[in-house]
Specification:
binds adenosine-5'-triphosphate, Cyclic Phosphodiesterase, Chain: A, 5-stranded antiparallel sheet, binds magnesium ion
Length: 179
């Protein structure tokens, strides 16, 4: 099973983020825009994991000692790609988020999982393959969502599947922070 561990977003935050993405959508000539049900912040991407190792993933999650913390989401940005840009919403990450991600990664590595060694850059992906009609610079200010803050009190193990050509995430397990 294809697995990753993520921070989920409250429904109102997803709604507000979707409005910004909707505005963006009108300003591209190409791009794929995942629905708001797929918005998340990835903490760790595990990739293909045999089902019998699921308990080991759960134990890695439960071993994290992080307390709940506040996260603020800001405006939009992009990673430039030749095939079209990745557009994301900025996560104003407090130290607590980096501690959680490090704690989780260490716990997973201790249990033999292999993770990306890339630096952790928390973000919420809003579009892939985005090609802007008039350039991104003219787009971002108008469609920027207001900053929003919320409390992160859990992390969720997700299964990621392609179903009928659509990417679907299914929550498999949740760890409550500070429990
Ligand atoms: P699709 O691949 O169909 O465009 P997706 O990227 O949302 O959709 P997955 O590839 O299953 O679905 O990825 C799930 C999450 O893990 C996403 O947040 C994705 O950015 C992240 N992710 C995927 N592959 C990696 C990787 N090699 N390293 C780090 N994060 C990854
Ligand atoms: Mg992917």
């Amino acid at each position: 099973m294809r697995l990753f561990i993520a921070i989920e977003l409250p429904a109102d935050v997803k709604d507000q983020t979707e409005r910004a993405a909707g505005d963006l959508k009108q300003r591209v000539e190409a791009g794929r825009f995942p629905g708001k049900q797929n918005y998340h912040i990835t903490l760790a991407f595990l990739g293909e994991v045999p089902r019998q190792r699921l308990d080991s993933v759960k134990s890695a999650m439960d071993s994290c000692r992080a307390e709940p913390f506040t996260l603020t989401l800001g405006g939009l940005g992009r990673f430039r790609r030749r095939e079209g840009d990745v557009v994301w919403r900025k996560v104003e990450a407090p130290d607590a988020l980096f501690s959680l991600q490090k704690d989780l990664s260490d716990s997973l590595i201790q249990r033999g999982f292999e993770l990306e060694s890339r630096k952790f850059t928390p973000h919420i992906t809003l579009a892939r393959g985005a090609v802007f009609k008039n350039g991104f610079g003219t787009v971002a200010p108008g469609s920027a969502p207001d900053d929003v803050s919320f409390t992160v009190s859990r992390m969720t193990l997700m299964e990621s599947r392609l179903t009928g050509g659509k990417r679907v995430y299914t929550p498999m397990y949740t760890t409550v922070l500070g429990a």
